[in-house]
Amino acid sequence: MPHSQHPIEILRFNTCGSVDDGKSTLIGRLLYDSKSIMEDQMEALERSADITGGGQINLANLTDGLRAEREQGITIDVAYRYFATPRRKFIVADTPGHVQYTRNMVTGASTANLSVVLVDARQGVIEQTRRHTFIAAMLGIPHLVIAVNKMDLVDWSEDRFWEIRDAIEAFLPKLDVFKDVKFIPISALNGDNVVDPSKHTPWFEGPTLLRHLETVHIASDWNLSAFRFPVQWVNRPNDPTNHDLHDFRGLSGQIAGGIVKVGQKIFVLPSGLKSTVKQIWTYDGPVQEAFCPQSVTLVLEHDLDISRGDMIVGIENLPGMTADLYARVGWMNPRALVAGKKFLLKHGTQTVQAIVNSLESKVNIHTFDSEPLPTEIAMNEIGEIRVRTAKPLVFDGYGTNRLTGSFILIEQGTNATVAAGMLLPPSELVKPEYTDFAI
Amino acid sequence: MSSYHLDHLQFLETEAIHIMREVAAEFERRALLFSGGKDSICLLRLAEKAFRPSDIPMPFLNVETGHEFPELIEFRDRRAKQLGAKLIVRTVEEAFKKGIAHPTPGQISRNQLQIPVLLGAIEEFRFDCCIGGARRDEEKARAKERFFSFRDSFGQWDPKNQRPEIWNLYNARLNPGENMRVFPLSNWTEMDVWEYIKREKLEVPNIYFSHERECFRRGGQWLPVPPAHNDNGKPDPYDGARPKPTEKFSKLIVRVRTIADMISTGMIESRADSVDDIIAEIAAARVTERGTRADDKASEAAMEDRKKAGYF
Ligand SMILES: Nc1nc2c(ncn2[C@@H]2O[C@H](COP(=O)(O)OP(=O)(O)OP(=O)(O)O)[C@@H](O)[C@H]2O)c(=O)[nH]1
């Protein structure tokens, strides 16, 4: 452990917005101005500037890591970049702006604490601004930054900045999930208000983007209130030569919610079996308690029939448990989703057969209103569906717990990941009595 | 009193352990690529943390070019033994004999040739998943890599058509012949790796620490002088990788920052002889670790091209 100094926190953020709003340039600028670009990377940039850029270096080439991206000047897939300042470490996902690559944007955003949505000051709020803001909200990303970029091209107009801000604030209440939203006028190309304050915006009192990223309060994203432990791998050393290990039967996994303590009573779901936590085993020695998202191995008092896909929960704050699910999905396949289709559904450590029974509604990205009973949900659209699974899922609403409230759909045959699913809160919770008959 | 808060290394650790266990649960025939280098050393500790007290449920696999640093081989073998793991080694030399790889005329580096050898081993043992120690911060094509990186039945990576990877729900489904490369250290930086080595008190091969070595200057780098060739009738495996009379030659205090084989690893002049020194050196470094690798300098898309063909 680093002793005296404060433990360093990681902030994960993604940049999104429409094509050419300047996402890659912005990340290049952050890295460049925070002195995170190394000399050999700089040389490579200069080499390609001489070849293709007429001598002008292109900061976007720092993250556009694929040949096709550099050739077309667009971002196709997420690029991850890492940098640190004395205050924080950052994991940045540069996500593509094209509607066509929305699934890659969802990939990069799904694990973020904060989203930076870029808006081109000349264009103002366009469909992709709305789509990406909506997706950030849907994914439950707590912090939002709207970076109004290319301010140099609108003469640093304060009026223009406010116009855009008003347009976005007009629809934010419909989303209503962000803990905080910050608007910052920038020029990614020239670096104004990215790392260093701009002399062109005397009217702007807020922090620069980097200052905000360094200081925004990221209260734990993890749910610490209800214990959830999806059993990932049964740990049986089966070592006849070692007496201690001969009977060792551990349940390995990553805590997906709450805190577990030695001596605590637990339920195993869906079976409803009861037991007590006898030991919390880790490689570094047994511990008295462990919390989300630590990876541990639990040893229970009783030798129960438990396998991968089962969920161990605390006896308070019980989850939902049903095979009839209601969820919001982001569809990511060129073949549209229609009712009646079967998929594999992966939720936590369990993969089950599932059928989409009905399409309940679809979001209109222009108005954010729901349109009832669509006939299909096309690629990059968002809708609400009813799904039935072959086995009940033990789950929480996505808003309560991102780990136990999320799933993906996998198409059989092609094995493509076709949807990101977010479960709505259960209408009914597991009843403690349920578990009584099963002791 | 616990504050229920993970620092950055603990966070990266739990993320990687979760991934390792997913591999153990979702695949049948998995392997862990272990070279003896610093990243794979971290992988081994993570595997211990993921699977103990059970055995690590997969063999270790290493592809040798034949130009390895002897120190690395010694370390690799010793570590595998200590952990009670099965170590599978496949070599470029054998692949020549079997005809699954062919020497490239005029090319001394066998870096590219590791590709058919690796794919050959995957086929031989029918591995459906290989865990590797690659990190996204190493190189910009790697920055595009998923944790679970799908390879078609030719071992190819299709970067323009990767599976979405959302939350921590990894799609591990494969059809016969296809396989997965899994990179638990994706989110680790070079600094994180050394901080983890320090925290976990992990042993690393001594070539990472400064030592005296005969080096020669080629392509803007200090390359190690290969071991002497005891003329046993066989051709010199380092033919072409020895200093020419015109090349500058000197005894230097050096260490390696990233290890390929002796032909593609540039030595850096350094006096860092402890993990703490190395951490201080990286914090002040002005070039990336891959800046010392000849294999990456070939072109801007050198790594992307090798990865598409089936490289690690
Ligand atoms: N004048 C001006 N031009 C900018 C600014 N930021 C970016 N640009 C230019 O806008 C163009 C697009 O920038 P990129 O960073 O490639 O855009 P992107 O958002 O990453 O695009 P995709 O990745 O394809 O979605 C480039 O030519 C940049 O130089 C800015 O602040 N001012």
Task: Describe the structure in your own words.
The complex is a heterodimer of chains A (439) and B (312). Chain A is α+β, with helices and mostly antiparallel strands and 439 residues long. Chain A has helices spanning 23-33, 39-52, 67-72, 102-109, 127-138, 158-171, 209-215, 243-246, and strands at 9-17, 79-84, 88-94, 114-120, 143-149, 180-185, 228-230, 233-235, 250-254, 259-261, 265-269, 273-281, 289-291, 295-300, 311-314, 320-331, 342-347, 350-363, 370-372, 382-395, 406-410, 417-423. The model of chain A has no long low-confidence stretch (mean pLDDT 90). Chain B folds into 2 domains: 8-192, Rossmann fold; 209-308, no CATH class. In chain B, 31% of the residues lie in helices and 15% in strands. Chain B has helices at residues 8-26, 38-51, 70-82, 92-98, 114-124, 190-199, 275-284, 294-297, 302-309, and strands at 30-33, 60-64, 87-91, 129-131, 148-151, 179-182, 211-218, 221-224, 249-256, 267-269. In chain B, helix 3 links the parallel strand 2 and strand 3 (87-91). The radius of gyration of chain B is 19 Å and the shape is globular. Chain B starts with 7 loop residues before the first helix and ends with a helix. The interface between A and B is large, with 78 and 62 residues. Residues 19-25, 60, 74-75, 96-97, 149-150, 152-153, 187-189 of chain A line the site of guanosine-5'-triphosphate.
Task: Please outline the helices and strands.
The complex is a heterodimer of chains A (439) and B (312).
Chain A: E1 9-17, H1 23-33, H2 39-52, H3 67-72, E2 79-84, E3 88-94, H4 102-109, E4 114-120, H5 127-138, E5 143-149, H6 158-171, E6 180-185, H7 209-215, E7 228-230, E8 233-235, H8 243-246, E9 250-254, E10 259-261, E11 265-269, E12 273-281, E13 289-291, E14 295-300, E15 311-314, E16 320-331, E17 342-347, E18 350-363, E19 370-372, E20 382-395, E21 406-410, E22 417-423
Parallel strand pairs in A: 1-3, 1-4, 4-5, 5-6
Antiparallel strand pairs in A: 2-3, 7-15, 8-9, 9-14, 10-13, 11-12, 11-15, 12-14, 16-20, 16-22, 17-18, 17-21, 18-19, 18-20, 21-22
Chain B: H1 8-26, E1 30-33, H2 38-51, E2 60-64, H3 70-82, E3 87-91, H4 92-98, H5 114-124, E4 129-131, E5 148-151, E6 179-182, H6 190-199, E7 211-218, E8 221-224, E9 249-256, E10 267-269, H7 275-284, H8 294-297, H9 302-309
Parallel strand pairs in B: 1-2, 1-4, 2-3, 4-6
Antiparallel strand pairs in B: 5-6, 7-8, 7-9, 9-10
Helix pairs in contact in B: 1-2, 2-6, 6-7
The site of guanosine-5'-triphosphate has 19 residues of chain A, from helix 1.
